[in-house]
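Hmm, how's this folded?
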Amino acid sequence: MSSAEEKKMPVAGEDAIHPVTSNQVARGDDNIKQAQSKEADQAAKFLASVGPFPPMTPEQEKAIVRKIDRWMIPLLLFMGLFAAVDKVQLATGALYGFKEDNNLHGQDYSWLGSILSLGMLVGIWPSTYLIHRLPAGKYLSACSMCWSLMTLCIAACHNWAGLMVLRFLMGVFEAIISPGATLLISVFWKKSEQPIRNGKLKTMVSDMYPVIMTVFSSVVNGFLSWVIGKIPADAPLARWQYLYLLTGSMNVLYSIFMIFYLPDSPINAHFLTVEERWHAVQRLAENRTGIDSSEWKWDQAWEAVLDVKIWIMFFFNIAVNVPNGGLITFGALIINNLGFDAQTSALLSMPNGVISSASGFLASYLAAKWQGRRTFVVMLATLVPLLGTALVYALPRSSTGGQMFGLYLMYCYWAPYVTAISLPQANTAGSTKKVVTYGILLLGYGAGNLIGPQTFREAQAPTYTGGTIAMLSCYCTAILLMGLYFIVARLENHRKDKKYGKAHQVEKENMDALVEVYQDLSDKKQEDFRYTH
């Protein structure tokens, strides 16, 4: 075969070279033209300009998924860990004189819990736009650096107004962490793989190594708080200041690391070879949700705003995160009010993360295994924190063991949240629609976390009856909303089946089909897209 009849694929380093025949090149010309069109996703351009490679074997696919797991889960896990530690240390700082040193009275402390969520509500708008226009990994790393610097600055602040500003700015920069991580999960893993990855990332559990690693914010924060409690009372700084300096410094160092090692998508994942990147992109075709397109499409933005399923999830996020906001801000104080000292309260708060992580991982695992019943898993998972809240509300304060058991069950609220967040991941296609969707959902997340601390009134301490009743109401609402989501998704699938017939699977070896899938179309505009419920 002459050189005119044979071309070789671009390679990097020691990647294997696979010849492409003249017929393949001729067929590829049309694919490249279509991939370079204005509508094309970056994945379409990548597939047409780099491939095709020989078909991927099941063993190769498993190896690629393992490699993605080993890199992406730890990278995103520790980013979420440090951000969560920054949030929950407000409560543990209160155990070591934070409120007294900063002259906080009445609802001042509650507002410090709420203002971070208000910052998230403000910050999500520019962040939603910027993560769509800029490399996702680099933007997440830059935001991580900024909120880490805010954490360091809190240690130098001594008045309520300054603390409010710093906490607000932390919220602005943290706004992108949840939708950003969700976006990266949706472009690295298939729909069927996403729930369990959500469980690993959101609950800080990883099983990629011989020993199960359980790293979560309350455990780390509780341990650090216990260590800080060993600092002598006559040290130059207050103990809560050392807590902020320690966690802020750790996060700054990790943010620098992420700038160099967190990829934006499989297309530029440094830990994959060129052939592995091509297969990693190709295998996601069945998601029909696209990977990346820097063009802003107003029709997709409006489709997101008018999508009933997204607004159901918006109100679900509010309902399930009202308890989150309250427990993050007041969890350690609730334990302290049961009669424990500061250091013991810090230690007793550590199981919160273990329970939260275990429940979230279990629910995510069930959602991945119980096909077509993801909303039912969410409803069942919501019953556990509902029971815990009922126990805390009904049992007398003198029943310390029963109160602690109920409180620990309340931390299972994370299970329905991390399972439910996989629904918009799986059910939203189109680059612009995805970022708008994640922005709307973060508004619900922020609103819930803003409301949560305000349901805990200083005048009602130590029982905080208003906060407990609010939690009970929110869990019941969340269950009803999940039932409604199931009905809407089933009806939309039935409507598509009636109009277009049964959905067809994507043929991964068919380049024309692959390029068509990656044309950055929304879920409603794809005839073969069906909604997960």
Summary: The first helix runs from residue 22 to 35.
